[in-house]
Amino acid sequence: MAYRIAIGNNKGGTGKTTTTVQLAASLAEHGKSVLVVDMDPQANASRRLGFRFDSSAPVPTISEAIKQDAEGVAADAITDIGWDQPYRDLIDLIPARFDLENRISEAAVLGAVSRLRKVLAGVDSEYDFTLIDCPPSLGHLTQLSLAAATAAVCTLEPEYDAVEAAVRFRDFIDVQAPELKNPDLKVIGYIVNRVRANLGAHDFQLEGLPELFGESVWCHLEERTVIKDAADSAVPLSALKNTTARNQAAAYKELAALVIKKAAE
Ligand SMILES: Nc1ncnc2c1ncn2[C@@H]1O[C@H](COP(=O)(O)OP(=O)(O)OP(=O)(O)O)[C@@H](O)[C@H]1O
Ligand SMILES: [Mg+2]
Protein backbone atom coordinates (compact mmCIF):
# COMPACT_ATOMS: atom_id res chain seq x y z
CA MET A 1 0.00 0.00 0.00
CA ALA A 2 1.15 3.55 -0.68
CA TYR A 3 1.82 5.81 2.28
CA ARG A 4 -1.56 7.55 2.53
CA ILE A 5 -1.75 11.10 3.83
CA ALA A 6 -5.08 12.77 4.59
CA ILE A 7 -4.67 16.55 4.44
CA GLY A 8 -7.21 18.39 6.55
CA ASN A 9 -8.25 21.13 8.90
CA ASN A 10 -11.62 22.07 10.37
CA LYS A 11 -11.41 25.46 8.65
CA GLY A 12 -11.84 26.41 5.01
CA GLY A 13 -9.20 28.10 2.91
CA THR A 14 -6.13 27.13 4.92
CA GLY A 15 -4.37 25.57 1.93
CA LYS A 16 -5.40 21.91 2.08
CA THR A 17 -5.89 21.66 -1.66
CA THR A 18 -2.90 23.85 -2.52
CA THR A 19 -0.73 21.60 -0.37
CA THR A 20 -2.23 18.41 -1.85
CA VAL A 21 -1.63 19.56 -5.42
CA GLN A 22 1.78 21.22 -5.07
CA LEU A 23 3.05 18.46 -2.76
CA ALA A 24 2.01 15.92 -5.41
CA ALA A 25 4.05 17.96 -7.92
CA SER A 26 7.10 18.11 -5.71
CA LEU A 27 6.92 14.42 -4.73
CA ALA A 28 6.91 13.71 -8.47
CA GLU A 29 9.96 15.96 -8.84
CA HIS A 30 11.65 13.60 -6.36
CA GLY A 31 10.70 10.72 -8.68
CA LYS A 32 7.85 9.45 -6.48
CA SER A 33 4.56 8.22 -7.88
CA VAL A 34 1.44 9.78 -6.38
CA LEU A 35 -2.27 9.05 -6.41
CA VAL A 36 -4.39 12.07 -5.49
CA VAL A 37 -7.84 11.28 -4.11
CA ASP A 38 -10.22 14.23 -4.13
CA MET A 39 -12.60 13.85 -1.17
CA ASP A 40 -14.04 17.37 -1.38
CA PRO A 41 -17.29 17.96 -3.33
CA GLN A 42 -15.84 21.36 -4.29
CA ALA A 43 -13.50 19.28 -6.48
CA ASN A 44 -10.80 21.96 -6.41
CA ALA A 45 -7.95 19.43 -6.48
CA SER A 46 -9.50 17.75 -9.52
CA ARG A 47 -9.71 21.03 -11.43
CA ARG A 48 -6.25 22.20 -10.40
CA LEU A 49 -4.78 18.94 -11.68
CA GLY A 50 -6.41 19.63 -15.04
CA PHE A 51 -9.40 17.27 -14.76
CA ARG A 52 -12.57 18.31 -16.57
CA PHE A 53 -15.76 16.27 -16.27
CA ASP A 54 -17.37 15.85 -19.67
CA SER A 55 -21.05 14.97 -19.30
CA SER A 56 -21.14 13.62 -22.87
CA ALA A 57 -18.47 11.08 -21.90
CA PRO A 58 -18.94 10.57 -18.14
CA VAL A 59 -16.28 8.77 -16.13
CA PRO A 60 -16.63 7.31 -12.63
CA THR A 61 -15.40 9.47 -9.76
CA ILE A 62 -14.72 8.78 -6.09
CA SER A 63 -18.44 9.15 -5.36
CA GLU A 64 -19.42 6.18 -7.58
CA ALA A 65 -16.62 4.09 -6.08
CA ILE A 66 -17.76 4.75 -2.50
CA LYS A 67 -21.36 4.11 -3.48
CA GLN A 68 -20.46 0.71 -4.96
CA ASP A 69 -18.77 -0.23 -1.69
CA ALA A 70 -16.76 -3.10 -3.19
CA GLU A 71 -13.14 -3.93 -2.45
CA GLY A 72 -10.73 -2.22 -4.88
CA VAL A 73 -13.43 -0.66 -7.04
CA ALA A 74 -11.78 2.80 -6.90
CA ALA A 75 -9.34 1.49 -9.54
CA ASP A 76 -12.08 2.13 -12.12
CA ALA A 77 -12.09 5.84 -11.24
CA ILE A 78 -8.35 6.48 -11.70
CA THR A 79 -7.70 9.02 -14.41
CA ASP A 80 -4.72 10.82 -15.97
CA ILE A 81 -4.09 14.40 -14.92
CA GLY A 82 -4.06 17.26 -17.39
CA TRP A 83 -0.52 18.44 -16.59
CA ASP A 84 2.46 18.01 -18.91
CA GLN A 85 5.22 15.47 -18.47
CA PRO A 86 6.92 14.36 -16.31
CA TYR A 87 4.05 15.00 -13.87
CA ARG A 88 1.51 13.23 -16.07
CA ASP A 89 3.46 9.97 -15.84
CA LEU A 90 3.92 10.11 -12.07
CA ILE A 91 0.65 11.56 -10.77
CA ASP A 92 -2.80 9.99 -11.16
CA LEU A 93 -6.11 11.26 -9.86
CA ILE A 94 -9.34 9.87 -8.51
CA PRO A 95 -11.49 12.93 -9.13
CA ALA A 96 -14.54 14.27 -7.36
CA ARG A 97 -17.62 16.19 -8.44
CA PHE A 98 -20.20 18.18 -6.50
CA ASP A 99 -22.31 15.01 -6.21
CA LEU A 100 -19.82 13.54 -3.71
CA GLU A 101 -22.09 15.40 -1.28
CA ASN A 102 -24.62 12.56 -1.78
CA ARG A 103 -22.38 10.12 0.08
CA ILE A 104 -22.90 12.07 3.32
CA SER A 105 -26.43 10.69 3.72
CA GLU A 106 -24.93 7.19 4.02
CA ALA A 107 -23.02 8.13 7.17
CA ALA A 108 -25.50 6.36 9.45
CA VAL A 109 -25.17 3.02 7.64
CA LEU A 110 -23.22 0.53 9.71
CA GLY A 111 -19.62 0.35 8.51
CA ALA A 112 -20.02 3.26 6.07
CA VAL A 113 -16.99 5.05 7.51
CA SER A 114 -14.70 2.27 6.23
CA ARG A 115 -15.88 2.50 2.63
CA LEU A 116 -13.04 4.60 1.24
CA ARG A 117 -10.52 2.22 2.81
CA LYS A 118 -12.41 -0.69 1.27
CA VAL A 119 -12.70 0.75 -2.24
CA LEU A 120 -9.00 1.80 -2.21
CA ALA A 121 -7.82 -1.64 -1.05
CA GLY A 122 -5.07 -2.82 -3.37
CA VAL A 123 -5.65 0.15 -5.69
CA ASP A 124 -2.67 2.24 -4.59
CA SER A 125 -0.16 -0.54 -3.93
CA GLU A 126 1.93 0.54 -6.94
CA TYR A 127 2.14 4.19 -5.86
CA ASP A 128 4.63 5.64 -3.38
CA PHE A 129 2.12 8.12 -1.91
CA THR A 130 -1.62 8.65 -1.85
CA LEU A 131 -2.68 12.19 -0.96
CA ILE A 132 -6.29 12.61 0.15
CA ASP A 133 -7.66 16.15 -0.04
CA CYS A 134 -10.29 16.56 2.71
CA PRO A 135 -13.14 19.09 2.86
CA PRO A 136 -13.02 21.73 5.64
CA SER A 137 -15.21 19.77 8.05
CA LEU A 138 -14.93 16.88 10.49
CA GLY A 139 -17.98 15.20 8.94
CA HIS A 140 -18.44 11.96 7.04
CA LEU A 141 -16.22 12.76 4.02
CA THR A 142 -13.30 13.67 6.28
CA GLN A 143 -13.98 10.63 8.46
CA LEU A 144 -13.89 8.36 5.38
CA SER A 145 -10.51 9.93 4.50
CA LEU A 146 -9.12 9.53 8.01
CA ALA A 147 -10.27 5.91 8.22
CA ALA A 148 -8.32 5.16 5.03
CA ALA A 149 -5.14 7.10 5.88
CA THR A 150 -1.74 6.08 7.19
CA ALA A 151 -1.22 9.54 8.66
CA ALA A 152 -2.87 12.96 8.77
CA VAL A 153 -1.30 16.32 7.96
CA CYS A 154 -2.89 19.64 8.88
CA THR A 155 -2.54 22.91 7.00
CA LEU A 156 -3.20 26.12 8.89
CA GLU A 157 -2.74 29.84 8.65
CA PRO A 158 -1.06 31.70 11.50
CA GLU A 159 -4.41 33.18 12.53
CA TYR A 160 -6.56 32.51 15.55
CA ASP A 161 -9.49 30.66 13.91
CA ALA A 162 -7.22 28.45 11.79
CA VAL A 163 -5.06 27.52 14.79
CA GLU A 164 -8.16 26.64 16.83
CA ALA A 165 -9.48 24.58 13.92
CA ALA A 166 -6.15 22.73 13.71
CA VAL A 167 -6.43 21.88 17.40
CA ARG A 168 -9.97 20.59 16.78
CA PHE A 169 -8.71 18.46 13.87
CA ARG A 170 -5.93 17.00 16.05
CA ASP A 171 -8.18 16.35 19.05
CA PHE A 172 -10.89 14.83 16.86
CA ILE A 173 -8.38 12.34 15.48
CA ASP A 174 -6.97 11.54 18.93
CA VAL A 175 -10.45 10.78 20.27
CA GLN A 176 -12.09 9.22 17.20
CA ALA A 177 -9.24 7.17 15.68
CA PRO A 178 -10.39 3.94 17.39
CA GLU A 179 -13.99 4.56 16.19
CA LEU A 180 -12.61 4.99 12.68
CA LYS A 181 -10.92 1.57 13.08
CA ASN A 182 -7.60 3.34 12.60
CA PRO A 183 -6.35 3.56 16.21
CA ASP A 184 -2.76 4.56 15.38
CA LEU A 185 -3.75 7.55 13.25
CA LYS A 186 -2.09 10.81 14.28
CA VAL A 187 -1.46 14.26 12.87
CA ILE A 188 2.21 13.86 12.01
CA GLY A 189 2.78 17.33 10.61
CA TYR A 190 1.46 20.88 10.59
CA ILE A 191 2.11 23.03 7.53
CA VAL A 192 1.81 26.71 8.30
CA ASN A 193 0.63 28.39 5.12
CA ARG A 194 0.12 31.97 3.88
CA VAL A 195 2.67 33.39 6.30
CA ARG A 196 3.20 37.13 5.86
CA ALA A 197 6.49 38.60 6.96
CA ASN A 198 6.44 41.46 9.44
CA LEU A 199 2.78 41.04 10.32
CA GLY A 200 2.45 41.31 14.07
CA ALA A 201 -0.62 39.06 14.28
CA HIS A 202 1.19 36.32 12.36
CA ASP A 203 4.36 36.64 14.44
CA PHE A 204 2.24 36.26 17.59
CA GLN A 205 0.53 33.08 16.35
CA LEU A 206 3.77 31.60 14.97
CA GLU A 207 5.39 32.00 18.38
CA GLY A 208 2.61 29.98 20.02
CA LEU A 209 2.66 27.04 17.61
CA PRO A 210 5.59 25.03 19.05
CA GLU A 211 3.84 24.98 22.41
CA LEU A 212 0.69 23.55 20.80
CA PHE A 213 2.18 21.19 18.24
CA GLY A 214 5.81 20.72 19.28
CA GLU A 215 8.22 19.46 16.66
CA SER A 216 5.38 18.48 14.35
CA VAL A 217 5.35 22.03 12.94
CA TRP A 218 7.02 21.09 9.68
CA CYS A 219 7.40 24.33 7.81
CA HIS A 220 6.23 27.85 7.13
CA LEU A 221 5.11 28.65 3.58
CA GLU A 222 4.74 32.25 2.48
CA GLU A 223 1.68 33.98 1.08
CA ARG A 224 2.60 34.56 -2.57
CA THR A 225 0.52 35.48 -5.59
CA VAL A 226 2.30 32.83 -7.69
CA ILE A 227 0.75 30.11 -5.52
CA LYS A 228 -2.72 31.42 -6.33
CA ASP A 229 -1.71 31.85 -9.99
CA ALA A 230 -0.63 28.18 -10.18
CA ALA A 231 -3.94 27.12 -8.62
CA ASP A 232 -6.02 29.33 -10.93
CA SER A 233 -4.17 28.19 -14.06
CA ALA A 234 -4.20 24.53 -12.94
CA VAL A 235 -0.44 24.04 -13.29
CA PRO A 236 2.46 23.03 -11.04
CA LEU A 237 4.53 25.95 -9.72
CA SER A 238 7.43 24.86 -11.93
CA ALA A 239 5.36 25.84 -14.99
CA LEU A 240 5.50 29.51 -13.92
CA LYS A 241 8.79 30.92 -15.11
CA ASN A 242 9.74 33.58 -12.60
CA THR A 243 11.99 33.79 -9.57
CA THR A 244 9.21 33.85 -6.97
CA ALA A 245 7.61 30.73 -8.47
CA ARG A 246 11.00 29.00 -8.51
CA ASN A 247 11.55 29.87 -4.84
CA GLN A 248 8.09 28.63 -3.86
CA ALA A 249 8.56 25.44 -5.89
CA ALA A 250 11.83 24.93 -3.98
CA ALA A 251 9.99 25.33 -0.67
CA TYR A 252 7.47 22.64 -1.68
CA LYS A 253 10.32 20.42 -2.84
CA GLU A 254 11.90 20.72 0.60
CA LEU A 255 8.53 19.85 2.14
CA ALA A 256 8.31 16.78 -0.13
CA ALA A 257 11.77 15.66 1.03
CA LEU A 258 10.56 15.90 4.62
CA VAL A 259 7.41 13.93 3.81
CA ILE A 260 9.51 11.20 2.14
CA LYS A 261 11.71 11.05 5.24
CA LYS A 262 8.75 10.90 7.65
CA ALA A 263 7.06 8.16 5.62
CA ALA A 264 10.21 6.05 5.91
CA GLU A 265 10.38 6.36 9.73
N1 LIG B 1 0.58 30.36 0.25
C1 LIG B 1 -0.38 30.91 -0.46
N2 LIG B 1 -0.20 32.13 -1.05
C2 LIG B 1 -1.18 32.69 -1.79
N3 LIG B 1 -2.38 32.14 -2.01
C3 LIG B 1 -2.62 30.95 -1.44
C4 LIG B 1 -1.64 30.27 -0.66
N4 LIG B 1 -2.17 29.08 -0.23
C5 LIG B 1 -3.41 29.03 -0.73
N5 LIG B 1 -3.69 30.15 -1.46
C6 LIG B 1 -4.95 30.48 -2.14
O1 LIG B 1 -5.96 30.55 -1.15
C7 LIG B 1 -7.16 29.97 -1.57
C8 LIG B 1 -7.52 28.82 -0.63
O2 LIG B 1 -6.53 27.81 -0.73
P1 LIG B 1 -6.95 26.29 -0.86
O3 LIG B 1 -8.03 26.12 -1.87
O4 LIG B 1 -5.73 25.49 -1.02
O5 LIG B 1 -7.53 26.06 0.62
P2 LIG B 1 -8.38 24.86 1.16
O6 LIG B 1 -8.00 24.68 2.57
O7 LIG B 1 -8.25 23.69 0.27
O8 LIG B 1 -9.86 25.45 1.04
P3 LIG B 1 -11.24 24.66 1.25
O9 LIG B 1 -11.38 24.51 2.73
O10 LIG B 1 -12.27 25.51 0.60
O11 LIG B 1 -11.08 23.31 0.58
C9 LIG B 1 -6.92 29.52 -3.01
O12 LIG B 1 -7.37 30.53 -3.87
C10 LIG B 1 -5.41 29.39 -3.08
O13 LIG B 1 -4.94 29.61 -4.39
MG1 LIG C 1 -9.75 22.52 -0.63
Number of helices: 10
Beta percentage is: 15-25%
On the 0-100 scale, what is the average pLDDT?
Answer: 97
**First CA to last CA: what distance?**
16 Å
Number of strands: 8
CATH class: Alpha Beta
The total tally of domains equals: 1
- The CATH homologous superfamily name equals P-loop containing nucleotide triphosphate hydrolases
C-alpha geometry = globular
What CATH calls the topology is Rossmann fold
Taking the sheet with the most strands, its summary is:
8 strands, mixed
From the 3D coordinates, which CATH architecture would you assign? 3-Layer(aba) Sandwich
* Rg over C-alpha atoms, rounded to the nearest angstrom: 17 Å
Determine the fraction of residues in helical runs and give it as a percent range. Answer: 40-55%
* Uncertain stretches of 5 or more adjacent residues: none
Order of helices and strands: EHEHHEHEHEHEHEHEHH
Strand order, largest beta sheet = 3-4-2-5-1-6-7-8
Overall SS class: alpha/beta
Oligomer: single chain
Report on the structure:
The chain is α/β, with parallel strands linked by helices. The chain has one domain: P-loop containing nucleotide triphosphate hydrolases (Rossmann fold, 3-Layer(aba) Sandwich), CATH 3.40.50. Helices cover 40% and strands 16% of the residues. The chain is built from 10 helices and 8 strands. It has helices at residues 16-29, 44-48, 62-68, 87-90, 115-120, 140-148, 160-176, 200-213, 225-233, 243-264, and strands at residues 3-8, 34-38, 79-80, 91-94, 129-133, 151-156, 187-195, 217-222. The protein has an 8-stranded mixed sheet, sandwiched between helices. α7 links the parallel β6 (151-156) and β7 (187-195). α1 crosses α10. The longest helix is centred in the C-terminal third of the chain and has 22 residues, at 243-264. Magnesium ion is lined by residues 16-17, 40, 44, 133.
